């Protein structure tokens, strides 16, 4: 499974990106990512979760490829579903490690 | 010739003109969705405004508002959670708390209030003495600050890339100016109007800093968010108004993506169509005109931008409209073909907007 993560916007307007492939992660980490994706019920999330923009909020775009399944979700920080935020946090840490 | 708007006609200005507590639709929403204490507070606010409304009817057209020049600041502590506004940490007139973020938010919002009041005779964000509410310690490792439509919110930063967001006074001015824009031109937060919205926040943010430091245009470094990056990041700040695209170049966060002119404008969809990216173009136009005019940048260039924001520009105004509007304003204020009007025109030409 591949997870492609991008965070844009925010006061600083920095683009933070991270791409991970569970095949190249250590088994405990790969397991953790799979659990976070399952907990988010990612493939059933709508493609766009938007709200009237509040200035300087973050925007996220997450794409997951698993076998022949492929789904992209765009979400505004202010309407982030609770079940998705642990996956976002995990990917953000990966992005910070560079 | 575009009709001059007055404040009372503005569609965004439906906030209770007497008490300025909260627009009724917000209190309604809190009553429906808020916690127990928020509901009680909202109902109390509504009761007070109903009482005021009755009083207004009794005295006719006289408008009550917070006394001009008096600040009403409250700083809340979210204690690393995301519930807003959080617990009260410092109210108006309270002494320093020793919590840097609390005290910086308090002092920075005060400096911003004083700037708008003393330079433009504007009584707070809405012009009617609106309370200045700030929440600090929002979320964990939160690398951001934002305006949520009714208050400012500041994160502590992750400590690796970012320090606390109250560290730089122009960030505080930037967030409060989003509130001013929301009440005035109400520039939509997307594409060129969104980049103008961002630019107005950077412009007044840096002017507030320059005024605190008593700097003329040529003495400022024109860096937005100086001190916000930790020492591990290779950068001087978040944005350079003087040389957009040069504020940072770092292994982890990459290179400052701002264009300095229209030839390099970003046309992608990220960041609401690049509102924090393309703001580099109007930001540089401001820098160019302010340094060409000389002296304190808030006195002339700042005045031209303030009139554009509060009286002329509309929700969907783009860069070209802003440029032409500011050339007109400069002519009205300082004369046709004055040095000031020439500076405004030359600046927008240099960045390729006209």
Detailed description of the structure:
- The complex is a heterodimer of chains A (98) and B (354).
- By secondary structure, chain A is an alpha+beta fold.
- The mean pLDDT of chain A is 93.
- Chain A has one domain.
- Chain A is globular.
- Chain A has a five-stranded mixed beta sheet with strand order 2-1-4-5-3, with helices on one face.
- In chain A, helix 1 runs antiparallel to helix 2.
- The longest helix of chain A has 14 residues.
- Chain A is built from two helices and five strands, in the order E-E-H-E-E-E-H.
- By secondary structure, chain B is α/β, with parallel strands linked by helices.
- Chain B folds into three domains: 130 residues, Elastase, domain 1, CATH 3.10.170; 47 residues, no CATH class; 160 residues, Neutral Protease, domain 2, CATH 1.10.390.10.
- Chain B has a five-stranded mixed beta sheet, with helices on one face.
- The longest helix of chain B has 24 residues.
- Chain B is globular.
- The two termini of chain B are 19 Å apart.
- The N terminus of chain B is likely disordered.
- Chains A and B meet through strand 1 and strand 4 of A and strand 4, helix 4, helix 5 and helix 6 of B.
Helix content of chain B: 40-55%
Strand content of chain B: 5-15%
Number of domains of chain A: 1
Task: Quickly give the CATH architecture of the largest domain in chain B.
Answer: Orthogonal Bundle
The number of helices of chain A is 2
Report the major sheet of chain B: 5 strands, mixed
Main sheet of chain A?
Answer: 5 strands, mixed
Q: Could you say which structural class the secondary elements and strand pairing of chain B correspond to? A: alpha/beta
How many structural domains can be distinguished in the coordinates of chain B?
A: 3
Q: How are helices and strands ordered from N to C of chain B?
A: HHEEHEEEHHEEEEHHHHH
Q: Strand portion of chain A, in percent?
A: 25-35%
Q: Count the strands of chain B?
A: 9
Q: Please give the radius of gyration of chain B in angstroms.
A: 20 Å
pLDDT under 50 segments of chain B (min length 5)? 1-31, 46-63
Spatial strand arrangement across the major sheet of chain A: 2-1-4-5-3
Quaternary state reads: heterodimer
Overall mean pLDDT of chain A stands at: 93
Write down how many β-strands of chain A occur, each being a DSSP E stretch of 2 or more residues: 5
Shape of chain A: globular
């Amino acid at each position: 499974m591949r997870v492609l993560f991008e965070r844009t916007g925010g006061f600083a307007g920095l683009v933070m990106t991270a791409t991970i492939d569970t095949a190249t992660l250590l088994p405990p980490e790969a397991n953790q990512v799979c659990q976070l994706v399952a907990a988010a019920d990612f493939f059933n999330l709508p493609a766009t979760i938007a709200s009237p923009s509040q200035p300087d909020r973050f925007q996220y775009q997450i794409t997951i490829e698993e076998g022949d399944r492929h789904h992209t979700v765009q979400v505004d920080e202010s309407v982030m579903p609770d079940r998705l935020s642990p996956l976002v946090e995990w990917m953000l840490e990966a992005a910070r490690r560079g | 010739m575009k009709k001059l708007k007055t404040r009372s006609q503005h569609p965004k200005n439906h906030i209770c003109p007497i008490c300025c507590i909260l627009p009724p639709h917000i209190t309604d929403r809190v009553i429906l969705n808020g916690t127990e204490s928020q509901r009680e507070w909202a109902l109390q606010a509504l009761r007070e405004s109903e009482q005021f409304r009755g009083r207004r009817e009794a005295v006719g057209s006289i408008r009550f508002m917070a006394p001009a020049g008096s600040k009403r600041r409250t700083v809340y502590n979210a204690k690393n959670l995301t519930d807003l506004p959080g617990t009260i940490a410092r109210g108006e007139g309270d002494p320093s708390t020793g919590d840097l973020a609390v005290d910086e938010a308090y002092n920075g919002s005060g400096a911003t209030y004083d700037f708008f009041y003393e330079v433009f005779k504007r009584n707070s964000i809405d012009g009617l003495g609106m309370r200045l509410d700030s929440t600090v310690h929002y979320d964990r490792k939160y690398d951001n600050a934002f305006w949520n439509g009714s208050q400012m919110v500041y994160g502590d930063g992750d400590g690796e890339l970012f320090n606390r967001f109250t560290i730089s006074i122009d960030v505080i001015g930037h967030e409060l100016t989003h509130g001013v824009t929301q009440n005035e031109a109400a520039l939509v937060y997307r594409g060129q109007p969104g980049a103008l919205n961002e630019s107005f926040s950077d412009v007044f943010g840096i002017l507030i800093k320059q005024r605190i430091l008593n700097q003329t245009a040529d003495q400022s470094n024109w860096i937005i968010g100086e001190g916000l990056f930790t020492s591990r990041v290779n950068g001087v700040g978040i944005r350079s108004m003087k040389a957009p695209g040069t504020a940072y170049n770092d292994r982890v966060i990459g290179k400052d993506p701002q264009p300095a002119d229209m030839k390099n404008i970003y046309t992608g969809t990220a960041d609401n169509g690049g509102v924090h990216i393309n703001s580099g173009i109007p930001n540089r136009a401001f820098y160019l005109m302010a340094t060409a005019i000389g002296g304190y940048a808030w006195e002339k260039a700042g005045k031209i931008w303030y009139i554009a924001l509060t009286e002329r520009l509309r929700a969907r105004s783009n860069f070209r409209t802003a440029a032409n509007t500011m050339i007109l304003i400069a002519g009205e204020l300082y004369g046709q073909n004055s040095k000031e009007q020439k500076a405004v025109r030359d600046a927008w030409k240099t960045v390729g907007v006209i």
